[in-house]
Fold each of these.
Amino acid sequence: MTTKKIAVLAGDGIGPEIVAQALRVVDALELDVTTEEALVGGAAYDAYGHPLPPETLALAKVADAVLFGAVGDWKYDKLERRLRPEQAILGLRKELGLFANLRPAICYPELTAASSLKPELVAGLDILIIRELTGDIYFGQPRGRRAAPDGAFAGADEAFDTMRYTRPEIERIAHVAFRAARGRNKRLTSVDKANVLETFQFWKDVVTEVHAEYPDVTLDHLYVDNAAMQLVRAPKSFDVIVTGNMFGDILSDEAAMLTGSIGMLPSASLDSSGKGLYEPSHGSAPDIAGRDVANPLATILSLAMLLRYSLDHADAANRVEAAVREVLASGHRTADIAGSGERAIGTRTMGDAVVAAL
Ligand code: ATP
Ligand code: MG
């Protein structure tokens, strides 16, 4: 087996601090894996005048997976749009062909108090939301503004977007979802709005066709309004959810609140060959950067997803996730997850605890 390579793009704000802890975990696992770092976001802009320099993109392309921290800082807000740090992640998604966004929402037993819901509704919650990233109303053409055709009001305009999905786009995300469901509890819920939208009647039809290749997985369909309701009424009734770009955007943020802490949520964005970019769901948190208080667990859990989905090291992924459960069970808390009266530890000390648990 050839040595696998992880491109490490730590970025801005708390990015370097939290990624450093994930790299200590990589070392502790003693796998046949190499890492190589490059600048991205504001840090890359400062050094090269561009948030995604060619060197960084080239490294991301040759690597088997990308571990990404976070980008952005207030000090870049005045730059023209194409030079802003956030453009780096959009550029990477596009250049790497990342079309499937996986966001687990896990509620650790010790952290149920931080959830927006009652503990009994979320205790033991472990669901996976899979969002399509390239299609839907976000990218469909035509879109724009124009004068109202009836000219009813002088100077009145209208704005419009086009919701659109192609068969290959739906098929490839459906395959990702069925495979993910197969690796879990073999239950998939496809979320649509087939009662109102032609695009999502098509979505439902194509997902149903792909289901024929996965007879061992149970598939059901839910309208998005009902899914939004069930996520707060009975979130544990789900296992894997697959949906389009816009519904996924909304439902994954809703699911994040069920778990209570943004500092605990990993994410993965995959291409069709199993390569992916892995990053915490939270941003660069410039308000707490450089103070050794950020929670590194979302990044460490993103590393676990990287090991599972891109490097074929499911055992190592399970070990990392078990280590995170263990440090939570033994009472280690960064400030964002510390309850009242609980003592908070720093970023590096949390990293120490995970390494020790491994
Ligand atoms: P973005 O636009 O990049 O998503 P944002 O402004 O929406 O950024 P974050 O950077 O995620 O949001 O920060 C939101 C809040 O959560 C901030 O107060 C930040 O300090 C806090 N936060 C984010 N990540 C962490 C973390 N890993 N540990 C502790 N607190 C965090
Ligand atoms: Mg945000």
Amino acid sequence: LFPERFIKNTDYYNSLMMMYRCAIREVSTKLEVLDDEFSVKYKRNPISSIKSRIKTPLSIYNKLQRLGYEFTEQNIREQLNDVAGIRVICSFIDDIYAVAHLLAEQDDITIIRIKDYIQNPKPNGYRSYHMIIEIPVFFAEGKTPIRAEIQIRTIGMDFWASLEHQLRYKKDLGNNEQYALITQKLTECARTITATDNQMQDIKNLIGEYCEF
Ligand code: 0O2
């Protein structure tokens, strides 16, 4: 009986992951449409790139365990917000808020939660704008609301977060003193990147005084 149950469960899981992949496609298309429209109107692209990922089964399992839930379809759907993840890399800080606002205004998108780590950076220096949204995906048997996490950040914020992510998950960095030094240096880098992001925004604003930008 076990193989049959295993195969059936695998089918459920694959079908659930297919739904998350479809949600990612819908959100990505919305973002591409906004970027396209913007490039025609203002002759520039607010979005530098879009990345997406589906959380791995092990990562889903670990997160559910951490939260005290079993690995079931219902718990995945109800307890996790970031099985479908979309990362939007913008050129300037104000592009982040423009993209977030334009997405939030679309009437098929429901905002579940916003975390603004740009206005309120984390103590380690992490900055990014996080939106948990729900979007209906249309299948043969009707529509299903699917949750996704959208992280919107500048190229600088993404550069920092990617390296910090590698550091956090790296276990062989030497003794604690070295680790503390690396963490402190990363926080300094975050400050430098914030200053550069702000300077680039100022330059954009200045150019905007001369021409539409
Ligand atoms: P991974 O490997 O990137 O997927 P929840 O939204 O309820 O699931 P939480 O922690 O309240 O959980 O959400 P939050 O704070 O919005 O952070 C979720 C994601 O933001 C993380 O996912 C990271 O991708 C990113 N993030 C948050 N804090 C940091 C940070 O200090 N450094 C870096 N590099 N990324 C961060 P995961 O699942 O932790 O990791």
Amino acid sequence: MSENNEPGPDEGPTPVLAVVGRPNVGKSTLVNRIIGRREAVVEDRPGVTRDRVSYDATWNGRAFTVVDTGGWDPDARGLAERISAQAEVAVSVADAVLFVVDAGVGITDADAAVVKVLRRSGKPVVLAANKVDDARTEAEAAGLWNLGLGEPQPVSALHGRGSGDLLDAVLRALPATPQESFEELGGPRRVAIVGRPNVGKSSLLNKLVGSDRVVVDDAAGTTVDPIDELVVLREREWRFIDTAGIRRRVREASGQEYYASLRTATAIERAEVAVLVVDGSQPISEQDQRIIATVQEAGRALVIAFNKWDLVDEERRYYLDREIERDLVRVQWAPRINLTARTGWHIDRLVPALDAALGGWETRVGTGALNSFLGRLVAEHPHPVRGGKQPKILFGTQPSTSPPTFVLFTSGKLEASYLRFVERRLREEYGFVGTPVLIQQKPRE
Ligand code: GDP
Ligand code: GDP
């Protein structure tokens, strides 16, 4: 697609690679190299929780998600404890783990602690022997064979040496599709329940699962989570993603915030539709907004559930309406439902909202219909003239759904405000309830 636009269409959930290792072995440098960007990961300040924990990557045409666990600082005591706690988080959310060690330093106690966790998990591991900047230091990597994690991949995150071979090894370790093949038609819909702590996620889940629950443990021999639950609602099966992350909270008491955001990001990645649970009795928060942004960036469908409606009185209702107008403008398209998880009031509204959102997410507009729509739009509302020239939409297609993604072939570059206008009109015409809509432009040279 054109270089000056959003990333290409996301074709659904991608497998997750978690990067773990001691501080200073070069994880951030390596993550930056893998995602092909320089700015992303490095700028954090110590002790500050990163917003962003997962990044899109592609290698040889295969897309995957990189999760950097470096920003998580649990308050476990020693370094080895901290690192192994971090590794536990990583294996619980990832399909494969990239374990980074500093080849020049060799194996430390902290590394050994990670190895234990990785072995126990049974997840595929790629061992990166970093800081092998030249042929001379390559021999140091060989010493890492005795970790029992397979062939060490010598790499220089800093200079890029060996990174192609490392990524090849990563692709071999990642399953073709995350966890299972979710892409199969007719499989249960995948739903992630997300939201801040204490908004009522587990109460909602409990009400939904009732007694119709099947706990799905993904892979034999792995640690117990993530665990999905299959639930029959309205005579159809639904898969609730990573419910272990909702139910278990005691163990993650330390580093909880980071852990929660990591889990949220990966659950969204694995889901088709996210249900953002908001406490209706509390002001809409920054954190709610961040989760919404994560859903949008991942290109997933979204439903917003205002829970604890039993606590919402006239006055609160007044303010909530204003907060919705102010804080949720970006996602005006998301179906909103008010419910009380504690009693089950309005719980039955969830499935219709999910259906609406998934319907919008999968809407496809035929090329003929799209172009007659675009023709009318351009005639009624041409792009403003800029510098004596008038950018124009020549032709459009919708190459993919989930989320709906449009490509506009243009003469001249359309302004962002005009693209927003096109999006608004597309939504008026075709609905696209509950879904982000991506519009890319390809200006003719
Ligand atoms: P992290 O704490 O594991 O995320 O490590 P960083 O990515 O922040 O890197 C720690 C230090 O090691 C930085 O000064 C990097 O520039 C340096 N470093 C990272 N990768 C390499 C490498 O391949 N070779 C060399 N010589 N230095 C590296
Ligand atoms: P989670 O952290 O998002 O999973 O939230 P929980 O489901 O554990 O709920 C947090 C607290 O809110 C608990 O004390 C629940 O009983 C309470 N709660 C959950 N749903 C409702 C509701 O609809 N109304 C009221 N009043 N309280 C609720």
Amino acid sequence: MSHFSYKNGVLHVENVALNAVSQQFGSPTYVYSKAALVENFSAYAGACQQHSPATDSTLICYSVKSNSNLAVLQLLSRLGSGFDIVSGGELLRVIAAGGDTRKVIFSGVGKSREEMRLALSHDILCFNVESIPELHRLNEVALGMGKRAAISLRVNPNVDAKTHPYISTGLKENKFGVAYDEALACYRSASALSNIDVVGIDCHIGSQLLDDAPLLEALDKIIDLVNQLAAENINLHHLDIGGGIGITYDDEKPVAIDDYLSRLFTRVNAWRQAKYKGAPIKVMFEPGRSIVGNAGILLTEIQYLKHSEAKNFAIVDAAMNDLMRPAMYEAWHGVQTVAQRGGQAQIYDVVGPVCESGDWLARSRSLAIEAGDLLALMSAGAYGMTMSSNYNTRGRAAEVMVDGDQMHLVRQRENPADLFALESLLA
Ligand code: LLP
């Protein structure tokens, strides 16, 4: 996380000291580094350009659910990104951020008719269809609008992503996609529907993958299917391998994006050459965490230190409602003090004010701290703000984007009165 470093004993994001962020915007606050976002996106874009230079032969569709702040979407859109969405709400965010709807793909197992209509009216690139009933509903909705819906089927390649069971999605017991063995039959039904255009194939096997071997295994299986479909004259324009590459939270060593894409394109290009005489079937990606995860931190202030017989607690002003990942997955986030201070370190659990024992952000960390100090919860850019809630009627955190020595407030802190503004009293 080179964009997060100590200068004169104070943790900075790029050239902005985190205590300056808290002075100006308070805490808890999510703070993102624009340079880190650009660098992470460019790792994908650069590798695509290098290994598959033909125009329009690749597309990176950033997974909006990982961090959907409008400024993040705007920045990525300006860098040429498309978007992987999972709701009508995410589509409206992409539009509000100035994103190109013709670069939007719509994933998810439960798309409503209304969401389908919205997406069709904005001419999105493709629906990633996850079941036969969804396919029929989409055909019906498109017919009603006098439109055609471009689809890809999300195929479940049944490979083990070897990640946390809650974020593993490519095994046959998961709710996602259509079974590999049924995919051919599903494609036949899809291509017989009046208002459906079969354009692609898609898979996503899980998240926080450290090794690319399961992704390459999935790729081989998908390529096999595309060949079988071609033999039946169902010719696809794109292959979408999903997202899933992990990041370093503690001491994990995820595969480098460039190494992954270089291995992937070695296979894809050999296949393109053999089957398509080099014609570039488009390859698409849906990365989320590897673009935003290490580009953000959650800044929080210690309210109290509490020493009990069994444990020491640092009670901070951020909580599980701000960063759900520890409570939900026992996820590990680094904790750094914003101002380094001398003194004896002690072992602390970092916990929030929410009334649940599960409300912890980090456990058993050695910290030299005092009440009033600021802490940074590291690697919190992905699935941080987007999974936050208003539990305990806590307003959501502010979000700040740092660019060099500038800070931009990209989301105001929620005002408690806003939280019940849509509620009404009985007459
Ligand atoms: N495409 C699809 C269809 C997905 O379901 C996901 C993530 C992605 C792409 C992006 O995957 P990524 O590149 O970020 O791994 N809340 C969990 C992660 C859930 C991931 C859900 N799907 C966490 O905090 O770890």
